[in-house]
Every structure is written in C-alpha cells, then in structure tokens.
Write a structure and sequence with these properties.
This protein is α/β, with parallel strands linked by helices and 231 residues long. It is built from eleven helices and five strands; from the N terminus they run E-H-E-H-E-H-E-H-E-H-H-H-H-H-H-H. Strands 2-1-3-4-5 form a five-stranded parallel sheet, sandwiched between helices.
C-alpha cells in the first residue's frame, strides 16, 4: 500500500504529430520510477481535449502541428492554472520556440536531446526550478532580439521597483547564468539568489524565470550579444 503523503510520479502529456517521436519519448519516460506518461496527443486541439480529462503536471509540446499549433495550445494551457509546458524545438532554434516561450512555456528542449536531458528537463520544470538550459534560452533570444519591440522607456517604471541588487541579479539571469554562478559572482549564497529572484518575479508580475529573461531583453536591460562574462 502506497504512502498517501508520498508525492506521486510527475504526470506527463506528450504532444507531437509524429507517432514515432511520441513513442520514443514514452519509452524513455515510462522507464523512470518518478515519471508517468498519462496521455498523448497529435496536435494542440487534441492536447486541450486530453487535459480536460487527464491530469498532467508537465506537457511536452511540439510547435509545428496541424489544426492547432503548439503556440496557441501553450497560450491556452498557461492562461489558467494548468500544467507546465516544455516546448520541443528543432536544432536551429526557430522563431516558433521564441513565440511559444512568449506564450507562457516554462522552457524548451531540443528534439534530438538525449534521454538524460529529457528526464532532467521534466524534473526541473516540475519542481519549479529555473528555465531549462538558460544559456540556450539566451542564444534563442539573441537570435530573435531584432523582433522585440523597443520598450526601454516603458521599462524604466517597472525596473524602478527593483533594488540595485535585484536589478543586478535579473541582468545576470538574462545573460544565462545559473543561480550557483550568480551566487559565486556576487559573493552571496545560492539561497540568497533564489530569494532575490522570487522578489523580482513578484515585483514585476512575472510567472517564472523564462518570463524574466524575455522581460530583460524586451526592456533593453540586456542587449543582444551580451554574455555572462561581464564585470
């Protein structure tokens, strides 16, 4: 008999129009003791239907699908108190992945990622940790920063609510540094960095670390091409 106080496995819904891809992911995930594939869908519309009857914690979402693509499906899922969405994207980091992150995805993963990366991504997002591979997110934003609106003027009001240290943490987050790297850079504990990050999200009305990175680029706090190697 299972312990009712012990957390159950992470429930995952697989959404991809290629059955072979879904089968491959399902085989990898079902082999994990703490992850359970609770359903599959071949497009965004079917994914929304599945989520009405099947509880899921994390959705692995392809972007290019018939009927309803992953962007619109992600937008609808994240509009409520739905599961976290991880976008599956191609190696060239296309603009669809960027649009999906803007729509509310918690992170993204390359379609050719290995089994270990796939499992770690799901566990990371489910536990509420930072975006999967922040340096990859930064490269994606670098590539499409040209499409971002010039909102530096709008940024000044929102950024004024942050302390100098919080602004510094946000800048480093946007440049792709992990909490541990930020802690080392600022000579503080990792717990302190997490506290700062929580306050940043609250003050700016952001949902997660991904939104914080997008905000930093949109508002001009970080420019395309900047890296974590700053003084």
């Amino acid at each position: 008999m299972s312990d009712p106080d012990e957390p159950g496995p992470v429930r995952v819904l697989l959404v991809d129009d290629q059955e072979l891809v879904r089968t491959g992911f399902s085989m990898v995930l079902d082999a994990q003791p703490d992850i359970e594939v609770v359903g599959e869908a071949s497009d965004g519309a079917q994914a929304l239907d599945r989520l009405r009857t099947v509880p899921a914690d994390v959705v692995l979402m392809d972007v290019r699908m018939p009927r309803m693509d992953g962007i619109e499906a992600t937008r609808r899922i994240t509009a409520g108190d739905g599961p976290k969405v991880i976008i599956l994207t191609t190696f060239d980091l296309d603009e669809y992945a960027f649009a999906a992150i803007k729509a509310g995805a918690a992170g993204f993963l390359l379609k050719d990622a290995g089994p270990r990366q796939l499992v770690e991504a799901i566990r990371s997002v489910h536990s509420g940790d930072a975006v999967v591979a922040p340096s990859t997110t930064r490269r994606l934003l670098d590539r499409f920063a040209v499409h971002l609106p010039d909102t530096e003027a709008r940024a000044s009001g929102a950024l004024e609510s942050l302390t100098a240290r919080e602004g510094e943490v946000l800048r480093l987050v946007a440049r792709g540094l992990s909490n541990a790297e930020i802690a080392e850079r600022l000579y503080v504990s990792e717990a302190t960095v997490k506290t700062h990050m929580g306050r940043i999200l609250m003050k700016l009305g952001l949902r997660d670390r991904v939104q914080a990175v997008v905000f930093a680029y949109e508002t001009g706090l970080v420019k395309s091409g900047q890296t974590g190697d700053v003084g």
